[in-house]
């Protein structure tokens, strides 16, 4: 199997009916970048910056942050890298940062909420990123955004940092794109506004499913109570893809779901054309893409979603489709 997947490395990721599906990597440490070459991935769709903070014994300095980002950009070469700002809190605890006592950490003070309430940390990270990018393009996205206003405020902080660097005669990124993780369900009801405000969107299916179904992503007792291929979940993913496309805003899926071939097939059927996943998933997902007809799976999925009467999982139907095609 591994050998077979390796043989696919240099083949373009295109469906049988000629639809390009960009397959990108999820990464968090510098060593993960070595998988770019190994897998033939088209860049890093999600770089989780909190990893550097989680493995450190103390808060990484501005210089340490900048040097990691420089090394990541150097390792990626001309391939794009989407950097996510610190996603701490919830299940991601920094041993050296005093944690709040919270009844519900998953719903608590975390990610962009910390960034906006204590902008010092976010500002330091953004400055490190802008400096590391130098004159090359830069893509930054913000985690756990629940309202359009939070994104607008985060964007203002980026603008301030850019102005600061410009005043000091430092080069700015040739192209600086700011995106939003779609992982809090409130964004489903602000899709047009967030798609208009952001340069790109990336669906964090791990958290989106957790919050949509009120099912703790780490709790095995409840994890199997719903299927991400049930009608409700597929409609949520479909709505995001459709509204993003209507606005002309690029959209990716970077949660674990994009790395499973059957789920990835469904996402392509819903209109997604870019998926970011762990390195081991690239081969199996690419093999699926090469054997898929994107228009046909789209029509099949629309039919199945229209005729379901109980909202049950479409997994059996999708598995049968995959088997037959
Ligand atoms: C997600 O929530 O789907 C995601 C990609 O982010 P993380 O798993 O880091 O929360
Ligand atoms: Mg998340």
UniProtKB/TrEMBL annotation:
Location(s) in or outside the cell: Cytoplasm
Primary subcellular site in the record, as a coarse category: cytoplasm
The UniProt record lists the keyword Oxidoreductase: no
Protein's name according to its UniProt entry: phosphoenolpyruvate--protein phosphotransferase
Residue spans crossing the bilayer: none
Alphabetical UniProt keywords: Coiled coil, Cytoplasm, Kinase, Magnesium, Metal-binding, Phosphotransferase system, Sugar transport, Transferase, Transport
Family, as annotated: Belongs to the PEP-utilizing enzyme family.
Molecular function in Gene Ontology: kinase activity; metal ion binding; phosphoenolpyruvate-protein phosphotransferase activity
GO BP: phosphoenolpyruvate-dependent sugar phosphotransferase system
Organism: Methylobacterium nodulans (strain LMG 21967 / CNCM I-2342 / ORS 2060)
GO cellular component: cytoplasm
Tagged with keyword Nucleotide-binding: no
